[in-house]
User: Fold this.
Amino acid sequence: MTAQLYQGLGDVGFTIPAQGVTYWVGEAMQGTDFQDLAETPEATAGTTATAARNAVHLAAALKASPYPAG
Assistant:
């Protein structure tokens, strides 16, 4: 789903940061829903933090040097 969305956004001129999405696939062979977890798994939290840092970095880069056609 995300790949299709990001492809469409890229096709119309949006810039997507590296690792711009995180998602919960659950534990193997379990039916646990993310919203039912007592706390966010460390791997998920770390990946989400990286995605946020990448988005901030991209925003700063584009602010400092916008696309010429923009």
Notes: The chain has a mean pLDDT of 89. The longest helix spans residues 42-64.
